[in-house]
Amino acid sequence: MNTLTHYITPDWISVAFLALIPIPFILIVLLIRSEAKKANNQLAFSVSLFFFIAYLAYIYIASLNGWFNQIYLPPKVLLLTTFPFAFLLFVVVSNNKIYKTILKNVALESIVQLHIFRLIGVFFLLLALHDSLPKPFAFIAGIGDMLTAISSIFVVKAIRNKKSYAKKLTLVWNIFGTVDILFTAIAANVLTKISMDTGAMGVDKLAEFPFCIIPAFAPPMILFLHWTIFKKLRDFSV
User: Fold this and answer.
1) First to last CA, the chain
2) How high is the pLDDT of residue 235?
3) Domain ranges (residues) in the chain
């Protein structure tokens, strides 16, 4: 049975990651609170806050107990976190009445600007530079995330200024961001398979705490946000 290869990285990278990774959770919860308040339903805020705290605790406990240590395909971190979280978002949340209300009332730019948290992608680059991730994978994934984050600023500005090209720009940006996260998720699994077969470097670092938060949270949440934006765009007009 294959087990994770532990790559040593400077402690400051882990500390910096732990300091910054709460940002996406906070941004999402704050948006939910704002929209739930408008709908006079604070339950959504309380439930989302409790869930994220419990989910992060679960990820930590699972990692601490070595639940992600064996290398399978798909990786155990996906089986135990990513897939269940994706099911929760796309099956449970998407059919929830509160989500539908928020979707109807929330401003398109409010969802787009959440993607600023994808600047966290810089950690792909840092891990690669310290020989903890394959460089081609990390640089494509990390730079793609950072480009999506930075370009979201211009997309939000176009929407708010009611530019004639705002809808098309948002659509192109949303497609790019979706392709980027899909590439990252698929490439990570391909590299895991290659690593199992040949012993080459895989993405083992992303199954270790705290970096296991990335696959446990980012792919489902980011895809769900992009999917939500696609739905908003159907009825959006400048």
Assistant:
1) 56
2) 84
3) 11-234
